[in-house]
Design brief:
The chain has helices at about 40-50, 70-75, 95-105, 110-120, 135-150, 165-185, 195-200, 220-225, 240-250, 270-285, 300-305; strands at about 1-15, 15-25, 30-35, 55-60, 65, 80, 155-160, 185-190, 205-210, 210-215, 230-235, 255-260, 265-270, 290-295. Helix 3 (about 95-105) packs across helix 4 and helix 5 packs parallel to helix 6 (about 165-185). It has 11 helices and 14 strands. It folds into 2 domains: about 1-220, Rossmann fold; about 230-295, Alpha-Beta Plaits (2-Layer Sandwich), CATH 3.30.70.
Amino acid sequence: MSAIWAEGLTKHFDEVRAVDGIDLDIAAGTIFGFLGQNGSGKTTTIRMLTTLLRPTAGRARVDGFDILDDARAVRNRIGVALQEAGLDDIQTGRELLTLQARLFGLRGGARRRRIEELLAIVDLEDAADRAVGTYSGGMKRRLDLAAALVHRPGVIFLDEPTTGLDPVSREGIWRYVNRLSVEDGITIFLTTQYLEEADRLAHDLAIIDEGRIIARGSPAEMKASIGTDVVTVEVEAPEALDHAAEVATAVPAVERVQIADGAAVVYVPDGARAVARIVIALDDAGIEVGNVSISRPSLDDVFLEATGHHLRVEEPAPVDGGAA
């Protein structure tokens, strides 16, 4: 049985099509990555699947329960950590987890054991009795993750859990998320705007842009679908870029050329051999070449080919929240 299933899931806000008819079929026990830039529809999708927002159209089931007809059952079976952690800075970490456990009906020794287990999982044992307001941003994200796990859900929704974190804190969250999947068999629906995060964590991945899923598969499958190396050529005169793309297209073995972010992106099977031919052809055409780079296909190349533009990450101010 699919852990998460959706058909034609849609949400419109007046004239804005935030989510425009997406289909999902996510296997149990996997990490599903939902990759897209801010405003692409990621958060709206997660809010519908977690029963926080009613769809305009379409159907969806989570852990076998319909998000509309069985909303209470869905909420009892999922854990949710949204972008803005709902933490009380006055409470200690232990007090917050105790309150969450009580809300889910855990009592006595079972509650205490679960809290100690969760504090160990997210490495907050030493900080458990400190006020949350003294936690760093990474510690707060880990505590929010622990709160989502209190009732042992089979499905967890994480909405951009590492946005604004420093690299060390981000790496820590990745480690915990991977452990939940590998060791506990939990299904994780992870929205992200970070290419590396999607590549590192996701077993299955969908790229969403302007409310529509534009690519789907494992990260390896997506990158393999490009089928070529990627040569990125910058030219000194921006007005010569269209001509540069035309010249590069005529170079032998070049399969296609796209213009993106002020550069010509050339797809060719053997980039190392082709780059000299491309540069010579541009020089013969009187086009002054700037930087040239060669790379294997990345998820950003997949995104570029599907949308015509690179994935633009809007990085907020670093999450601080106090001393570590």
